[in-house]
C-alpha cells in the first residue's frame, strides 16, 4: 500500500509539472486556445537611464519594453488608417510630426507584460529599438494595452506610402549658387538654404537608436551649404597636401585631421572674403532632410545611396542623385564631420544650436582628445539622415572608416535680427 501511494503521488507530481515545462520552453504563458495574435512594430527599450527626461514612458518599470504597432489585428489596421488620414500630402512640419507621434502613442502603443521574454527582448534589442513581430494575448489594464508574449522574432514592416514618399521641402533653396574659388581655378558651389524649423531625430514608431530622441530645432538664419563634400583636388589646392589613402581628384578627401579641416576653412574664408566653417549637427540634418520632419525611412533615400556605402573612398562625388535641395552625397561616401562635439543627445527645443562647450563633462573623449559628431552613417545597414557617429581629432571614425566633410558659409541676419528696429 505504501509503495502504491508513493507511485500515485509521483504520478500527480509529474502531471502538475507538465504545464510549467511548457511555459519555460514556449514563452511567458502556456500556448493553447488563447486567441493569440501577432502584431508587428517598433519595440523600444530604455537604454538611457542616465539621461533625463526619460526617453519614453517606461510603463510598469524601467525594463518594460513598448511596441508601437504598425501591422497586426484589424483594429490596428483601422487605427493606422485613421492616423494616416491626418498625415498631410505635403509632408510633416513640426506640429504635424508631433501630432502623428502622439496619435501612435494614444492608439497603437502596447506595453509588453513583464516576464522572461520581455526581459530577453530588453537584453537583446540593439541600441534601444528594433522591428519585431510579437505573438501573444492582448488585454487592457490600468488604461494601457498590454501584450503577454508567447514568442517574438525579427520582422519587416511595410510603412504606409505617405511615410515612404520622397521628402519635398516646404521652402525652396536660393537660386544662384555662391561660388567659392581656390588656387588653380577650382571652384566649389554652395547653395543658400532657408531658415526654418524641424523635428530633429526619429519618431518612436520608427526603428531608431537611443540618441535620436525627437526634439524641435529652430534655425533662424539662412546658410549656404556646399553642393558636394570637399574633394581631394579642392583640399589639395587649398592645403597643399592630401591625406586620403585612395587617391582620386573627384573622390571626397578622407581622413583629414580635425585641425587640418579647421585650417582649410580658415584659408578658404580668407581667399573668398566669407566665413567658412563646418556645419553644426542640426544644420547637417536639416539640409539632409530638406527641412522636413518626415520619418527618415532608409528606402526613400535609395537613389541617394551608393552601393558600397561602407567605403568612404569608393564613390566619386555626384555619382548618385541629389536631394530635393540639390545637395549631393549627403548619405554616401563616408561619415560627415560636423562642428559639434559628440555628447548625449538633446531632448528639448533648441534655437540655433551649436553643440556643447568643450568643457562640458558630457562631451565624449578618447586618447586623441574631444570627439566630434559625425552624420550620414554609411557603415550601418540602416543609412538615413538622423544616424550619429563620432570622429577623433586625428581623422578616424569610432564606428570604423575615415571621415569626410562638407562646408557651410554664413549668410544674412537671423529672422529675429530682421524684426529689430534700426
TrEMBL record:
Q: Which residues form the Sulfatase-modifying factor enzyme-like domain?
A: 192-382
**Keyword Signal attached:** yes
Gene Ontology molecular function: formylglycine-generating oxidase activity
Record SUPFAM superfamilies: C-type lectin-like
Gene3D superfamilies from the entry?
Answer: paralog of FGE (formylglycine-generating enzyme)
Pfam families (UniProt xref)? FGE-sulfatase
- Which key words tag this protein in UniProt? Signal
> Could you tell me the superkingdom of the organism this chain comes from?
Bacteria
Q: Metal-binding among the record's keywords?
A: no
Signal peptide positions (record): 1-24
- Name assigned to this protein: Sulfatase-modifying factor enzyme-like domain-containing protein
